[in-house]
Structure formats: C-alpha cells, structure tokens
## 1
Amino acid sequence: MMVRLVALAALVFAAALPQLSTPAAAKDPVYTTTFSSLAVSGYDPVAYFNEGKPVEGSSDHEFEWNGVTWRFASSANQEIFMQDPEAFAPQYGGYCAWAVSQGYTASTDPTAWRIVDGKLYLNYSHSVQRRWETDVAGNIVKGDSNWPKVLD
C-alpha cells in the first residue's frame, strides 16, 4: 500500500513538473480583479469624461471589448463607448498609471483617476495618485515607454 502511495505521488509530481518550469503567462491587456471580468471594476469609463466623476455601471448596459466586460450607467454611454472604445478606455489597460511608469503593474481604485489630454488614467490609490501627480507629464512619458512591455 505504501509503495502504491509513493508511486502515485511520484506520478503526480512528474505530471506537475512541466507546469512548474513553464514561465508565468503574460498579464491580461486589460486589468480586471481576480474574480471578475469587469473592466474598471464595473465603473462606466465614459462617465469620467461626460460627468466628471466615477459612476458605477449597470449590468443592464454591458459591452464586451478587448476580452473583458465594460459596464455603463446608461445606454447612451454604452453607445458612445461602442463607437470609439479606445477614446474612453483607461490608459495602460486600466492598470495603475504610476506603477506602469515605474515598470510594473498594479491594480487600481476607480475613484483615483485623472483625465490628461483627453485620456483617462487610473491609480492604485489616492496616495499613489498624489505621487504620480508630482510629475504627470514625465510619468506619462515613462508609462508610454513601458507599455505594454510591463505585461510580460
């Protein structure tokens, strides 16, 4: 019985070995939380532009784009996004703008945001956003240079 258990354990370990040595897959091009496929944590990306604030989207107004689900507060916002998603989607796939400027990725808080030159940027937190805002232009240049390499 013990020999069988050892043999079984050896087979399981051998089967798992290829996965252990395989490099981790690249990160998704659009940030979503671990247990969700919602972009911007379910917030309406168009509302940042036309209402000047973060507004939660609704499951009644959803659109699949770039491999994830985008939610909107209204059908009008959904239509606007559908016509030109890249104009409203956050930069760096919705990953933290400061983290990307530093060469890595981090999650974001949809209430830590800023529109610069017609583009939406999100940050990990309000305190990280203040750090990013000490040199917005420089951090955007660095972020643009690092994106999308930071996904590898």
## 2
Amino acid sequence: MASKVVFITGAGSGMGQVAAKRALLAGSAVAALDVNAAGLEALGASERLLKLVVDITDPAAVKAAVERTERELGPIDRVINSAAIMPLGLLMKQDHALILRIMSINYGGLVNVARAALPGLLSRGRGDFISFSSIVGHVPSIYMGAYCSSKFAVCCFTEGLYHENRKSGVRFACVCPPAVATPLLDQARDTVWPKMFNLAPPTTPEKVLDTMEAALEKGRFWVMPEFGTLVYYWMRRFAPNLLWRVIHRVEGV
C-alpha cells in the first residue's frame, strides 16, 4: 500500500482506525473520516494524514471530503467503508427513528461514498473499493434485525457495484466478519447482548484486515474471516430452518 492514498470512513475507532494506522505505517497517505473528532485525534499527526470530521449521511459533505482529499493528498487509490453503528433490540421495541438511523449510516453512508469517490477510481481504471459488512449481512438473527438489514443492503449494493464494474480495473471486496473485538460491540452491551455472541470469542481487527488483503490479492470479492463464518454462511444457504432452530434455542425466544 506504500505511496497510495487511502480514504477511510469510521476511522475514529475500531476497524477503521486500525486500518488507518496500518496504512500510515505502510507509507500511505490517509484521509480519515468520522463524526468523532476525539477518535480521529487518536491517530496522531502526520503530513500524510488528513483528519476530516464528516457525517457520512450528508452527501454534500462526503463529496467535499473526497474533493479535499484529492486536492491535498492526491488521487484516491483505496476506499474503505467501515463506518457503522450497532445498537440492538427486538424490531418492534427498537425506536423507529433509531432503526432508520442505522440504515442511514450503515447503508446510506456507503452509497454517498460510492457516488463521490468511485467515479475517480473508475476513470483511472485502478484502485480498491472495500465495504465492511458482516456475516449477519447474510445470516439474520434475533435482536439484530435492524443492523442485519443494513448489512444485507451493504452486501447487495457492493455486489452490484462489483458486477457492474468488474472489467474496470478496480478491485471490489465485501468483508463479512463475525463479531470483532472493537468498540462497536459496546453498543450491543449498552442495548441488548445476543446470546449467539457467546458461542465464540470475537475475532481481532488485525486478523480481519489480513484476510482482506489476502482476498484482494487473490481476486476474491467475498471476504469471510474465520472458519465459523463460512459455516454460518453455508448453513444459511442450505439449511436455513436448522440455523433458525439453533438461534431460537440459544436466544430462548
């Protein structure tokens, strides 16, 4: 990634922040976006780092961030969409506005970034466009309906982009990890903690990013870190009723 310009949403914490630190260590220039200014400050200072406090649900703000990045750092080579929120709860008990907010950030933010940043990559015929979804973007679960819906949308939108532009020279990847040890899990602890989360320890951001890089080099679109993730994926495809019985038994619902 040396000498590349990397545009990262959700860089104020978790996966996005780890990705930003790795890119800086590799010699890349980084545009780090988040609504959390304090989180961005944790990245430190560098002439190769542009910290941008941006609400990705605002398409005009995202477009301005892309333009500033390319003006100050150069053409964007890699886009990493990792901004997300994950408050959980039963669908009929979660606040109506919160459900729509989850979709607006997790999916709507991706759409805004794609519309602002992807045309430059396509016109240059190179670069990486990476979306962070989740295994629950393929496998719905109890207490996670709103979050799962947003991640299903991320998977579908990114897969559509990939197939519409597969001969463009731009590499696309949709990363679908299990639970990851990041502050995002704290939002679940503060709302509802699904018992399904207790079946296996969360993976690490570093392992997810390593798997992502290997998948990109192999030309793979779907990135599913951890063997258990593949088990859930294939169970959802070939034994969905069995999988739901397991979920109901574990959650007691």
## 3
Amino acid sequence: MVDMVKTHTGVSFGLTEEQKMLQKMARDFTTAEIIPVAADFDEHATFPEDIFHKARELGIVNMNIPAEYGGVGASPFEEVIVAEEMAYGCTGISTSVSTNALGDLPIILAGNEKQKAYWLGERLVDKGEFVSYCVTEAGAGSNVVGIQTRAEKKGGSYLINGSKIFITNASHAHFFTVFAKTNPDAGHRGMTAFIIDRNSPGVKVGKKFDKMGQRASDTAEIVFENVEIPEENRIGEEGQGFYLAMKVFDYSRPGVAAAAVGLQRRALEESVKYAKQREAFGTPIYQHQAIGHKIADMAINYEASRLLTWQAAWQVEMGIVNSKVPAYAKAFAADMATKAAIDAVQVFGGYGFMKEYPVEKLLRDVKIFQIYEGTSEIQRNIIVRELFK
C-alpha cells in the first residue's frame, strides 16, 4: 500500500486575510451607502454620483489602475470580490460605480505611458472623472466587426463620424474610449481604438434611456459629428482595435459575472429569510418541498457561479489566455441569476410582485446580465469556437 502524504497543491478555495478585509470593507460600504437608497434611486433613476465619490475615496473605484498612476493596482480577483458585494446591494448603482474599470481597460492594456499618466492618473484618479466604453452601435451589438463609426486620418489628426448606443455612464462621462473603423474594407483588421474628450467639438450625448431595470445606471446614445482628435489619442496601432476589444472582454466579463453572483446571493438570502417567516398550511413554507428545493437550487447555482467567476478572474490574473472560461462564468452566472430572481419572486408569491419587497427589483435588474458584455448566446458561440478549434 502506498503511503498518502498530504501536500499543498497550490489550489485554494478560501480568501486570504487581506482579501477578507477587502470583502468586509466592500460589504460594509454596501450596507451603509447602497442598500438604504437602492429602492429610491431605482424609482427615480438617480445617478449615484455621491456614492461613486465615496467609493473612490475608499479605494474601491478605479481599482484596476496601476499604482504607478495613482490607483491601487488591484488584481482581477480582488475586483470580483468587490463587484459581488456591491451588486448585492444594487446592480444599477454598482454598474455606475464600476464602469470606469471597463472604460479604462483599453488604455491600461494598450495605451502608452503618456496616455496612462494623463488619462488614468490625472483625469480618473486625481480629478475623479468618469470614462465610458463605446463599442455598441444601433446596427452592431453582438457583431462587433459590424460597427460603422469611421475614423479618417487627416494629417496629424483623425476625424471621427458615427454614433454609439446603450453606453453606460454616457451622460456623466468626461471622456470616452471609442472603437471606430480606420479601414472599412479590412473587416476586423480595420478597427482602431481612440480616446475622445467629451468637450471636443462635435460630441453630442443624447437623452438617457428609460430602462426596465438597473435604473440607477445611466445609459445613453453618443453621436460624433466631424470630431477631430489628435493622433496621440489613438490607443495602440491602427487595425488593432478588434483584438483589443476582445482582450477587454476577457478582463471585464469576470466582473460582470461577479455582479450577477451578487444578485444571486441577494435573491437567495431574501428567499431564505422570507421562507422562514411565511407559513402555509401551518408550517414555514421552506418545509414544503416545492419551495425548499427552489431555494436549494439557488444555493447550488450561487456557489457554482461564484467558483466559475473566481476561476475566470484567477486565469486573467495569471495571464492565461483562454476565452472560454470567462464565457463559462458570464453565461452561467447570468443565466443562474435570472433563474434565481424568477424563483425568488415565486417564493414570495403575490408579495414578490410588489415593489414593497426587494425581489421585484431583482427580477427587473437581472435581465440585462444575459444581454450586455456579450449576450448569453454569444458566450455559447465563444465556447463552441474554443471547443472545436
């Protein structure tokens, strides 16, 4: 018989003490600053600017900006820890507060030192500004290559014409990271990324959309009419925009998955609390198998979603390029969060349909997770592509 010796494999499913402190800080912030105002901000579609600045002072905004540019240089794993906690309180507010971490990614991943020092350090960290990420267009959502916004070279400048739609924080952003076609005939090789200041002549931000859910998150259209920007505002080389956009998704999808995980946990905890108190036929409803099993499934799917999300964030942190793992996490967490919200309303019965109870808002907020940052269908396309390479 072979003696079995316990060895440390390098795999851990627990948080370090530092990570637990970060988690507690984010949880305490959510309890104090987000949960008390979530329903009111949702009802009135209030943009959480004050909450953003409080979170920035605490160090849980602009987390991914490296320390040399004034940020905290948080790892992708640390980002998902915070994302889950804040989304537990309100995914609309957490989306508004965390969108800089998407908008700044093209600069972090492909910007030069001058761009990083100015746009990340001076504009985002020092001045506390907002940045929006601009890819989606009215005729190009899932099909990123189909964007029509053009960037025409004019001497030492570019002339930008086109429009972007469903842009998060657009009404409040001070600058935008924008993807446009520099060579319309080159397919995915003809796309390039740029930084456009909001104050540039020709930039017009439309009226924000009135949405079903995540109403505290601002979403609007942006139009660029003969917007002239200097060549120094180009991110990376011409023609590299598509590859940069795909790399951004690998970095950003674990955070979106984490937000869906946070909503799942909220649905689970609200359901457990209610099912203990509510009685039917003389017994708490969780003791009825029809209800108890729904809640058990919520717990299973929450834990599985979180583990997939942690794996996706860990992979990015390790520099492992494997797009199917972020796709696993984003698709599964979004789909299971949707199921959790639907089941939570069912657990609450008629009360779940009323705005007086929190699960009504969860159901409205959750649907967008299956749509933005790549639909659940697109995630499956990515998975199929990677499996059958």
## 4
Amino acid sequence: MDNKTIYALSTVYGKSGVAVIRVSGSNAKDVVEKMTSIKTVYLKPRYAYFTDIKDVASRETLDKAVVLYFEGPHSFTGEDIVEIQCHGSRAVLGSILNSLSKIENLRLAEPGEFSRRAFYNGKMDLTEAEGLADLIDAETSEQQKYAIRQMEGGLKNLYEGWRQELLKVYAYMEAYIDFPDEDIPESIKESNLNTVFKLIKAIDEHLQNSNHSERLREGFRVVIAGPANAGKSSLLNAVVKRNAAIVSDIAGTTRDAVDVNLDIKGYPVIFTDTAGIRSSNDVIEKQGIEIAFNKIREADLVLGLFDASVDTPEIFHEIKKESENKLLYIANKCDKLTFEQCSELKNAGCLLISAKYNQGVDELIDYIAEYIGKNFTSGSNLLITRQRYREALQECVANLKRFNFDKEIELSAEDIRLAARELGKITGRIEVEEILDKIFGSFCIGK
C-alpha cells in the first residue's frame, strides 16, 4: 500500500438523487483547491459547503454539490478526507471522477482500501472491519444487529481482554527465563495456572455458545424432507407465499433440491425443498434422492413432512439416522384428520399443518425462528461470525491446554506466546499481512 491520496465513489454507481465521492490522504485538500472556489486556508473541518464542482483543466462547472472536510486523525481513515456529495447521474459521476484522475498524487482506490487504511491507522481492528463489511452486506435485522455489535468493538474487547491476560502470564515467564537462578514462587505458579484455567473455560464456553453462528452470515439451512406426495413443495410455496416449486399429484415431480432465501423474523434462512424419498428405478430421480440426503446431512433443521392421513412419524427412521437431533415432525393434511387423531399426533411431538389451506404455517415459522434463536445465538450476544475466528480460538485453547510447570520454562512460555498470538490473529495485533488481502478484497471499491 503506497502513500498516495486515494479517491472512489462510495455509493452505488448509476442513477440516483445523491452520490458520495470520497477522497482520503495527505493531498485531499488539493481537491477542494483545484475543483471548487473555496480557499483551503479557510476550510473548516466538519462544515458543509455548497459549491460548484469544476473540471481541473477546463474549469467548466460539472455539478453543484456539498463538500465536507474531515481532518485527520479525526476521520474514518485517520487521514484527511474530503467528501463530495453530488448528483448521482452517470454523466456527473463520470466527469467528476475523470477530473479527480487529473490531479497529481491522486489515484483510484483499491477494493477495501479506505477501511484498510483505517486499520493501519488504528481506527479499527480486524473484527471491527469485518463487522463493517457484514453491516454493508446485511439483509436481515438480526444480521444488522450483530454486525453493529461487532463493528462497535464487542468481539475486539473480548478477545483483546483475553490476550492481555495471557501477556501478563507471559511476562512472568519471561522474567524467570531472564533470571534462571530464581525459583518461581508457588503463589505465582498457582496464580498463572488459575488464569490459564479460567481462560480455557471462558474460550470453550464462547466456542460452544457460538456453535455454527457463522450461519448468521451465510443463512440457516432448513430442509423439507419426506416421502413423495407428502406436500413438501406445497409447504415451501406456503412459507414463501409464492409458487417457488411445482406442485403436482404425480409422485417424483421434484427431482432436484429447490433453494429459496428468506428472512424469518430477522434471521436469514435458506429453505430447501427436496425430492420425495422412496424406492425408484428412475436414474434421475435416484440422483435427486441422493441430493436430498446430502441436504439433510448439511441442514441445521430438518422438517420431516408426512401425509398424516396415510403415514406416521415412523417412516422417518432412515432420515432420523442422518439428521441426529435436528428433526422436527410435520404432520401435513391435518384438515383430513379427526380431533382425536390430531391430539394423538400432537402428543407424539408433531406439528400439525395443512399446506394446502395454509393452516399451521405461521406456527411453523414461529418455531423455526425460536429454534434458531435458541440453538445458534449466544447469550452474551457476541457471536463467532467467521470460521477464521473459530480456528484461531481452537488453536489458542490447544496451546493453553499444553501449558504447565512440569517442563522447561522456555517451553511453557512458548505455549502462552502461541496462545496469545492466535488471539492476535483475530484482531490484527500481530503480523497478519497474509490475511489482509483476503479480508479487504471483499469490500466494494468505495469502502
């Protein structure tokens, strides 16, 4: 990353009422000097100026816009920033960006470079940067809520607190390495062992409470499985409130998995309709059934749907082996049942619905939202939203569990150093150049 001043469109390119062009770097004020009539000597930080935007070379007026100046280090990137809030037509944006390209020492920003500079300048750590990326990509209220918590430093404070505890232990170990003739007092040994034990317990609980919480970003997987003609496609259509899957009385109509993305009470959910599970000699249908079982294995929740007028939950013995403790029995076509039959199925733990007449569908949606909230979110509201966090925490615990005073003190100190380094990988408190490109490369150009 060079020290040139960068610029980019920070809003979506295209037709809009207002667009924002952002400039960051030591030469940001040159933009005001060269493209407006404002004298930079009088430029006030955080003050809005309504002015003509002029071409650098021809001095032709390109637009009338609002210009703001943010003086570093009190800005998003920690550098001087100028924002041009102009009209969002393609012609205006193209002419302003073209004019910016003519200013010396300015260049177009790379993907994520504004946020990357903010990281390098200490304005945010890696978890906050990734929280910002998640907020930009958020499609549901729950994704938005957790992204804001992460962006505000919730995870950073947690992991950095653990890291500081380890650094205290490491400092004691290094002190006794420097003075090998001194014996470590038993009180110091006991205190350090107690600190490590508490950290192992805290990190393990964090890992367990955030089980599969990466799903909050990717989408929770709910699979509808069952025999042919049980009403799986009808249920999918009832949930999404449109004809997402073909409904037919002909067995084997659904031969592939049909995925639909939904927002269920703030949670992102991928609903999947699968092929009816039965014996078949049809090569294509057999492939569809195999796909269905693969989807069942990958699912977070399996809806075992059956026609309650002809079948019972016992038909799911094979699916139950694949879905472990994530199977919910759904008795469809309850409109054909007697009151006694309905009561019997409820007592057996079945949820009763009629996909055709949209009965019980709202209750099913409530159940799914409650199931996700109960099984995939953390009581502390601090979730492990990325696999790299989970892997680093697991490595941290593994190093801590190797720590003891029964071996050479240098080896014990190394266990602590490696554990602290794993936590540092998450927040960026160590050399993490190898993962920066991957993180910031996913950002849009103007962010």
